[in-house]
Amino acid sequence: MVGFVLPPLALWPGPGEGVAAYAAMRALFDTLFLIGSWALGAGALAVAWRAGLSPRWALWALRLAGALALAGGTGGLLGGAAAALAGPAIALSVLALIGVAVSLWPRAALAAPAAGQSPP
Fold it and tell me: Whole-prediction pTM value?
């Protein structure tokens, strides 16, 4: 949407014809982004409170990212300035999820049977 819809609308020929269309599409994009930050926040919180995951710093970072994403999404949809929290929450959750994935990698590789072998 950002690459294929908004730029042509911004360059719409004619004086002021594309302004309303651009404003409507930009509002739709912002709304969908903030709803997506809600989904990210709920997912991050769900993963962060699952028992048995590590490292602890990544789980606390996920909890913080989830709270920031929920706050940013809610604040943005209510018209507040809290929408600016959504971007940093997404970046923090990506870093924390990479930490969780790296910690799970050795366990997953050890648990998988080798090719041609049956599991124990």
Answer: 0.73
